[in-house]
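User: Okay, second chain of the day. Same drill as before: sequence in, structure tokens out.
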Amino acid sequence: HDEAVMRLTQTITTLEHMETYADTGQYYNWYDHRTGEKLTVWPSSGDPLVPHLSSVDNGWLATGLKIVASAVPEVADRAGALYDGMDFGFYYRPDVNRILFHYAPSTGDAPCCYDTFVSESRIASYIGIAKGELPQRHYYGAWRTFPDSCDWSWQETKPLGETEVYLGESVFE
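Assistant: Same drill. Structure tokens below.
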């Protein structure tokens, strides 16, 4: 237990000193492992690197912080403060009721969006909904399975199902 608390304290201290984007509490994807500084070039090659914020990676980080805040009293307040400071509504695009893959602040690049809820993005959606930063209807914005109208020729079995409406969103099940 003591070793775990020591390691978590060091990790949380590192996170507290790393650059996040504006007031979103969202972390960049790549940092120098020696200094904690945001990377703008690849260390091994010196090639330019465009820092971006990943909804999925930040979602999993938030999950870890929430677990630590709930399970380790010695660092609970600090882990909880980092978790509370992460805004997942930042990734939300209401016109399609989905979240971005990522956002690159320096270029504005923001490819949209995760189309299926059975993808890696669902953790960011769960957290955003639970924190009240995403509307509840977002849960029904992405496909549960690809609809039969989707041109995905690699599907061996076409989906069968029916469409239901939840919180105003049409959902193929």
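Residues 55-71 form the longest helix (17 residues).

User: Thanks, on to the next one.
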